[in-house]
Design brief:
Layout (H helix, E strand, L loop, with lengths): L2 E3 L3 E4 L6 H8 L16 H13 L4 E6 L2 E10 L2 E6 L8 H16 L4 E6 L4 H9 L3 E12 L2 E11 L6
Antiparallel strand pairs: 1-2, 2-3, 3-4, 4-5, 6-8, 7-8
Helix pairs in contact: 1-2
Length: about 170
């Protein structure tokens, strides 16, 4: 089973016992403000989401900081990557650290030429984080996601493989 470690984080495969910690993230309105769905209304919704994460590829990770689950980072479906952390963990560079580990892992182990991300243009912090990792904007589109009753736009970003594959 794949596990990634950074200076401060442990990224590992999701487990059923992560339900409460992930519900705390996925039900938090601020954390979910720019996510592709409204905040989770109940644990059953998070349980279904978690079951899909558990069944997903080895590139989708739960993020642990100081022994507690604070979110997820990775690729549910390559080449698309994404992340979400509980707001209590924001502002410390943890998302950048997690995503840097994910990017390095994916390029080292998977046959992909680029990684992509779809970000709400109002989420400047996420756009800056991805740009810090080398992602570049490739386009924009209006009304791409309907989250609850609100239509949201998209900024598309991509990161090319840093070195050609042999």
């Amino acid at each position: 089973m794949v596990e990634l470690r950074t200076e401060r984080l442990r990224l590992r495969r999701a487990r059923p016992e992560d339900l409460e910690a992930l519900f705390a993230v996925l039900s938090h309105p601020e954390a979910m403000r720019y996510w592709s769905s409204p905040p989770h209304a109940d644990r059953e919704q998070t349980r279904a989401w978690l079951d899909e994460m558990i069944a997903a590829t080895d590139e989708d990770f739960v993020v642990e900081f100081e022994g507690r689950v604070i979110g997820k980072a990775g690729a549910y479906r390559l080449p698309d990557v994404g992340y979400i952390l509980h707001p209590d963990a924001w502002g410390r560079g943890l998302a950048t650290e997690a995503m840097a580990a994910v990017v390095a892992h994916v390029f080292a182990t998977r046959d992909v030429d680029r990684l992509t991300a779809d970000v709400d243009p109002r989420n400047g912090a996420s756009i800056r984080l991805l740009e810090k990792l080398g992602f570049r904007e490739t386009g924009r589109a209006a009304r791409t996601w309907r989250v609850g009753e609100e239509w949201c736009d998209s900024v598309y970003l991509a990161l090319e493989r840093p070195t050609p594959r042999p």
